Amino acid sequence: MLLASSAPLAQEAARPSRPVPVLKKAPRPEGGLKDFGSPLVLKPLTVEGATANFSARVGWRKDTLFVGVEATDNQLLAGDLITLTLSFPDAGPTATGYTYRFAFDGQRTSAADSGTPRFAQGLVNASVHRRGDTLVVVAMVPVRALPRFPAVEPLVMDLCVTYEDQDQVGQKTVPVSNCTGGTTMVGEALRLPDDARKNLKLKPPASVTALEAAPTGWLGWGVMPYPDWAQGDAPLTPQSLRALVAPKAVDASNMGVNVPDTLSLPDGRPVVTVLTGKNPYAVEGQCDSDDELRMGLYVVSGKTAQQALEWPAATCALGRASSIELDEEGALTIGYSNGAIVNFVWSADHFDRTEIGKR
């Protein structure tokens, strides 16, 4: 007979990481690496036939990541670029990294497919100096320009410095990097100090596993591919909440669904509806089963909002949401054009489903 082992299942070992040093003073941008009081040095992997090289130093101070790069090249051209790619592997499966690019004429716009938002690029400051065939960049990346990072777990980060070397105009660049594929560090990753997160003084619910800056506030992400929590830089209105959590939110009146702008909980707090997705009934008399509209219900308290429910607003199976009612006892009823009625009840901080029926 086989006996079940009482030993716990082996857990995947944590990835080794080096702490990013906390700097006693901010480096002078014009000082280059000589003014960088950090012992953390990054060097590129060996690339056969490469005619360029670099050395980089990394440090953290207050709310800013400092990265200094000194690249040497046999000839420095306009097509030669230094790129910094930052990512937090433990921020969840839908998290992506950000990429910032620099050349001898200053910061360049990140590629559209890099997923780096414009607002974040605008927050990054950099000092760029050309000294003969040497390019020196000191980049200052504030915490709001970091990509999505863990809300609780250690701030383990991949920081990839890549020098894209172009030996002749029009020629394909040869990347020289400290990372494989330009996205993953070889060996140890880096780890930002916990104070980088603590100093934000954000208080998301326990369901939030990752945090991400937005143009007008912060987003908290859980296991689902939509924000579970949000905090605005100013008190939230229905319009500002939608812009924060779903910039591509759609208008219910244009989608043929009866979804109210707001509802009200028994304690008076507003519940704001956020409608996203594609209308399956976009073509008159037809329904596309590959499309659906979803609605998120967010309970707003001042500057913060927490999602209380995420549910279909229009599908081929249910039809269109034709009525949504929230009574004074917290009972939520959603009726659909195909006859289905879905019932929920308010429970502490969210709506629990109770039953489905038909009239």
Can you characterise this structure?
The protein is mostly beta strands and 359 residues long. Helix content is 6%, strand content 45%. The strands form 4 sheets. Strands 10, 16, 17, 18, 19, 20, 21, 22, 23, 24, 25 and 26 form a 12-stranded antiparallel β-sheet that branches. Strands 1, 5, 6, 7, 11, 12 and 15 form a 7-stranded mixed β-sheet that branches. Strands 2-3-4-9-8 form a 5-stranded antiparallel β-sheet, with no helix packed on it.
Give the structure's gist in a few sentences.
The chain is mostly beta strands and 359 residues long. The chain folds into 2 domains: 17-196, Immunoglobulin-like; 210-358, no CATH class.
Topology (elements, then pairings):
Blueprint: E1 17-19, E2 41-42, E3 52-61, E4 64-73, E5 81-87, E6 98-103, E7 106-108, H1 118-123, E8 125-131, E9 134-142, E10 149-150, E11 155-165, E12 174-177, E13 179-180, E14 184-185, E15 189-192, H2 195-198, E16 210-214, E17 217-221, E18 227-232, H3 238-245, H4 252-255, E19 262-264, E20 270-277, E21 293-301, E22 304-315, E23 319-326, E24 331-336, E25 340-347, E26 350-358
Parallel strand pairs: 1-15
Antiparallel strand pairs: 2-3, 3-4, 4-9, 5-6, 5-11, 6-7, 8-9, 10-16, 11-12, 11-15, 13-14, 16-17, 17-18, 18-22, 19-20, 20-21, 21-22, 22-23, 23-24, 24-25, 25-26
